[in-house]
Design goal:
Layout: H1 3-27, H2 45-55, H3 61-67, H4 70-80, H5 85-98, H6 105-110
Length: 114
Amino acid sequence: MQPKVAKMSVQRNHMAKKQSLSKQLYDSGYLWSYEAASKDALLPDEELILNGLAHLEFEDMPMLFAAFPYRQIKQVWQRRMLPYPDYYGTLNLLLAALFFHIKSPKKYTSKYVA
């Protein structure tokens, strides 16, 4: 396979994973604020990641990590979820321990609280 063709194949696979993630979140009712007509359109990556972290079942999380780089997911989590312990507190501790392999989740998450 030629490099250009291989790259296009990888990009299509990546888009398919993102579309599958978006469809699952939409079908589950977590993207209710987006128009039904736009459910096939891709949301911005940051919105997909945030909604995936907040709403996917833990057994479905590998789909999120297959669609996006680990570093990008962690950055969204740090920027959009960690500063809100009243809303995401327990979830942040679980994500820290299970998916981001943080040894002291309470200590780590407390650094991000405003």
